Every structure is written in structure tokens, then in C-alpha cells.
Amino acid sequence: MRILNITLLTGLLCLVSNIGSAGDIIEATVTSQDKRYFINLEVVINADANRVYNILTDYNNLSRISDSITESNLIYSLSDNDHRVKVSTKACVTFFCKTIVQVQDVEQLPGNVIITTSIPTKSDVDYAHSRWKVTEEDGLAHISFNSDLKPSFWVPPLIGPPLIERALRNEALAIIDGLETLAQQR
């Protein structure tokens, strides 16, 4: 597995200068191996943790978080904690843009944990699994996000993975910025 530390550092420096209200970035890594992408993000933002969690679980309005989320809707709920959600995201890497649809089973666990698993037969990914955890820390929201994703579309070798890594990292940090902005609104 290769970690692009120099690219990560450069990308984060650019992002920090572009994201005005983002909190402290503890970790932000995207790595790739065998056509799979692994995202680990840990940040602390100036927002109420419960408000952040409520925004993340407002499945019909996820597009408020980021411009790249073009549509989201709750398909059905099996219980208060188990849902099926459809999310469409417009992802751009240099001049190439693609709308990626994911139908996900979402499980809300105790402790403000959200687990999502995409259904490959209904999604534009062969595999996608993510975990959000939102906790309160000294009046701030501590967000931990981990994801493992394998696109079902062709990614050009050599240049593709680094470009996708950068795009995934940028989007993850933009979502965090969107969460902070929404959570601070009254």
C-alpha cells in the first residue's frame, strides 16, 4: 500500500487555506491498494456533536452538506436505526466528471455511530463501507470517518489512483466544512 505523504501534505495545506471555518485536522489520509481506496479522516470542529449527527442522519437532505451530493433520499426504514438510502454524488477528477449512485444500507448504532454499506447491484461501486462516529469533546464535535471503496468503473492506471485519492480527500474535507457550517446555523 502506498501513502502519498507529500501529496497529502500539499493537498491539506491547499485545503486548509480554502476552508475558512474548518476545525483542527487530526488525520486525513487516502490510500489505494488493489483498486480499492481507504479514507481515514479525524477532525474536531466548532459545532455541537448532536447537531452534526442529526445532519448526517437527515437522509432526505444530505445535499445540503456538499455541492457534490446532488441527491439523497430515504428509500425505506426497517426500524428507527436501520434504513436504506440512495445518494447521488457528482465526482470530478481533472476534466472527467461522473455521477456516482450508491444505494446504501445505513445502521445507526449507539454512541452516534453510523455504518453504511453500499449494495453493489444497485450502486456504481463494487464495494463501499463507511463508518462515522461523532462525539462531544470540550464542547466541540470530534468526527471520525473511515471508508473503504472500490469503484465499479474503470480507473486509468498510474495517474488515476493519485487523482482519485486527491479528489476523495478534498471531498471528505469539504463535507466536514459543510457539516460545521450547517451545525452552526440556528
Structural overview:
This protein is an alpha+beta fold and 186 residues long. It has one domain (2-184): Alpha-D-Glucose-1,6-Bisphosphate, Chain A, domain 4 (2-Layer Sandwich), CATH 3.30.530. Helix content is 25%, strand content 47%. It contains three helices and nine strands. It is globular, with a radius of gyration of 16 Å. The model is unreliable at 1-21 (pLDDT under 50).
Sum up the structure in keywords.
186 residues, alpha+beta, Alpha-D-Glucose-1,6-Bisphosphate, Chain A, domain 4, 9-stranded antiparallel beta sheet, 47% strand
Average pLDDT works out at: 80
Within the largest sheet, what's the order of strands? 1-2-3-9-8-7-6-5-4
Q: How many structural domains are formed by the residues?
A: 1
By CATH, the architecture is named: 2-Layer Sandwich
Order of helices and strands: EHEEHEEEEEEH
